[in-house]
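ok so heres the complex, two chains, lmk if somethin looks off
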Amino acid sequence: MRMVIVAGTPGSGKTAVLVHVLKSLMRDDFTASVVKIDCLYTDDDRKFKKIGVPTLVGLSMDMCPDHYAIYNIEDMIKWAQENNSDFLIVETAGLCHRCAPYTKNCLGVCVIDATSGPNTPLKVGPFLSTADIVVVTKGDMISQAEREIFRERILEVNPNAKIIEANGLSGQGCLELAEEMVKSPEVSLESEKLRHSAPLAVCTLCVGETRVNKKHHRGILRRIDGFQTYQGE
Amino acid sequence: MIKKVTILGGYDKFGKKEPVRRVDINRGEIFGVVGPTGSGKSSLIADIEQLAQRDTFSRRKILVNDKEPTYEDRTNPRKKMVAQLSQNMNFLADMTVGEFLTLHAKCRGAHKSCVNKVIELANTLTGEPIKKSHDLTILSGGQSRALMVADVAIISDSPIVLIDEIENAGIRKHEALEVLSGHGKIVMVVTHDPILALMTDKRIVMKNGGMQKIVTTTPHEKELSKELSKIDDLLLNLRDKVRHGEIIENIQLKGLTS
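and the predicted structre for the whole thing:
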């Protein structure tokens, strides 16, 4: 079984692109199971179920959705294996884009919206820089010149990425993504590792502290002047 | 050197084979793409822009000089064979005209000195002049379009030029088409404008997402296009006058209306 982890900014068209990809995989007699990870709410599962794909929803609630996805990967793989699927596709709503949910053998797909401005690729970090494939959506909304600048910026951050320009409405580019998925390696839980460490945050805020005064905070704290300290027992 | 582009037919919106199975477009030819809205004109242009290899929903295949383009040909902007002027010309980039053109010239491997040339050329196509220090986002529709026409002509100087509905932009379209068609390029123009359509050598007629037939522009049609251009010029001149606050009286409509 192959595992594809799809991350991307909210509203970039992850689900729309995936629906087209799944349709073309099904035309070639492949089967897939989809897990949709979101924070508070999603109805995207209906879109996947409508085209006959087994779908599981995970709401991370007040936990970072990427952390939540990682803790649950073993169960997701088991579930997709029980479904006898050729692919497990995990769609996750990355929140801060500081982490990258991709594992070593999965196909890491980052979906990014071309209308978000040419500096966005420089801002979003590992979820773009460690992806195997960067899918650029909404390119039809901007000029070719802007699209080319956007592409150059992606390559500055991730020179090895394969860039696919896709359109979630028409399905343009989705066939190419499906073909890449078919070429991707098999998942192996024993050797799966994250490509990038998750962000550092073990502090009082993590356990529900809401007061902002400095004196209430313990853990690994970094000050705005760059000084980092551990405060606690 | 690109001498020829070939479109091999795919399927229409309903999954039926499109009637036209092969279109050859030679260097120096201007092709029109016509058809009602929603008939698939923009998708046809998109297929050519991506040099589709049966990997888009139309399943068309594009050949260049009778050969399949390489992956590098399809994706690297420095090697890009296609310059496209799309319908959407929204600038979202938060930078000045000068910065934007400099960046784009870098992407395309063109020299920085292009930037001033692009602005000069753009200013021959639009009324209000564009300045290098202008923020991109304040440009009007016509200014953006003129800037992109000039960018395509100078920075993205590719052998294949695709133009999507240039008439909507409020720029001098005949001049724009002249600037874009350059020397020995392959030009495709999506248009609803009869004058532009009749200026082309051939036109592909679209319906339901498929290429229905190819019409060769007759010599008579080309003559007609010139006549129709007079009406267009008249309207453009009138527009300028209205813009400059003049009173419009005494125009010659003889022969135009009956």
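quick notes: Chain B has one domain: 4-217. thats all i got rn
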